[in-house]
Specification:
Blueprint: E1 2-5, E2 16-19, E3 29-38, H1 41-48, E4 64-72, E5 84-87, E6 117-121, E7 125-127, H2 134-137, H3 140-152, E8 162-166, H4 170-181, E9 185-190, H5 193-202, E10 206-209, H6 216-223, E11 229-234, H7 241-247, E12 248-256, H8 269-272, E13 277-281, H9 287-300, E14 306-311, H10 315-323, E15 330-334
Parallel strand pairs: 8-9, 8-11, 9-10, 11-12, 12-13, 14-15
Antiparallel strand pairs: 1-2, 3-4, 3-6, 3-15, 4-5, 5-7
């Protein structure tokens, strides 16, 4: 079997492939023949050396993967040979609020999914919807679960609520799709008219081009009759948080997903305290979130937005394409 490896801070040039013996699952472990992976910003952060959580030396990267169970260890009860499953990035966080004891993560402090065969604890696998291909299912573990957690945390989203999504990254697109399943109105921001049309095709009710409308929080207020939105999916970090606060309705929620801006930003304290809202930092999601999300995906026959699929042999090219930041939807690596 072949696996990719990288060291923290080694950059894309440090991504190498090696051959190994196929591993054997131990007690309460399963062996998965990987069929597809998808990329997230955390993969680039690991290679750039900016990822804040612990990273194994010479780690097998990438947290997202889907495949077929080909062997099970002693005592396994949650899977059988032949099951189609996806990985859970935090395999030991099965339910309840996040705690540091659940912080072991695939592609970080544990080996990840960019490999032909992976051994996973049975707690860390989730069966995938029957109507999805392996490539589609591989997009779910981080972006999908994070978006679901962000929309259902605290007071669950209700029909008629309004949601603001930022940009066209994986989490934002899943949040748009899921919000529409709840019957919510979605306002999205983006950088181009072309992406605006794609967002509308996915269900966005209103789209604001933040390049031509830099004070997009004003436009959000106008679109909501001065009230603001009930929930913001905040993925921009310090570069957008101030405007997200100004876009939020009284007693609204801001789910902070990432802190991805490349430059430091000073946010006036007056902006942070000028509204009444709840700000929640989202740590992906647990297995319970994953299962609930999959039920909604199955009932609605939802399909994820995929930008491009690369073969396993071209994993480096997939990372380079993703790093360029021009994709709309998930970048997938297929083992087929």
């Amino acid at each position: 079997m072949k696996s990719y490896h990288v060291n923290k801070g080694a950059g894309l040039a440090g991504l190498t492939v090696r051959e190994h013996d196929v591993p054997v699952p131990g007690p309460r472990e399963v062996l998965v023949r990987m069929r597809a992976n998808s990329l997230n910003a955390r993969e680039l952060m690991v290679m750039q050396g900016t990822y804040p959580w612990p990273i194994l030396p010479d780690v097998i990267p990438v947290s997202d993967g889907a495949g077929e169970v080909v062997a099970v260890g002693e005592g396994v009860t949650r899977a059988r040979v032949g099951d189609r499953v996806a990985s859970s990035i935090l395999p030991y966080w099965t339910e309840g609020p996040f705690k540091w004891e659940y912080s072991k993560q695939l592609g970080g402090s544990m080996n990840g999914m960019l490999t032909e065969y992976a051994v996973l604890p049975e707690e860390g696998i989730v069966h995938i919807p029957d109507h999805l291909s392996f490539e589609e299912a591989a997009t779910l573990p981080v972006a999908g679960v994070t978006a679901w957690n962000a929309l259902t945390w605290g007071r669950p989203l209700q029909a008629g609520d309004s949601v603001l999504t930022l940009g066209s990254g994986g989490v934002s697109l899943f949040a748009l799709q899921f919000a529409k399943l709840f019957g919510a109105r979605v306002i999205a921001t983006t950088s181009s008219d072309d992406k605006a049309e794609r967002l509308r095709a996915l269900g966005a009710d209103d789209v604001i081009n933040y390049r031509t409308t830099p004070d997009w929080h004003v436009a959000v207020r106008e679109l909501t009759g001065g009230q603001g939105v009930d929930r913001v999916i905040e993925v921009g970090g310090p570069g957008t948080l101030e405007q997200s606060v100004k876009s939020t309705a009284v007693s609204g929620h801001i789910s902070m997903i990432g802190w991805l801006a490349n430059t430091a930003t000073t946010i006036p304290i007056s902006a942070l305290i000028g509204n009444f809202y709840t700000l929640q930092r989202i740590a992906v999601g647990n297995r319970g979130h994953f299962l609930a999300m999959n039920r909604a995906i199955t009932v609605n026959q939802l399909r994820p937005a995929i930008d491009r699929v690369f073969p396993f042999e071209d994993a480096l090219a997939a990372h380079r394409y993703y790093e360029a930041g021009q994709c709309f939807g998930k970048v997938v690596i297929s083992h087929s």
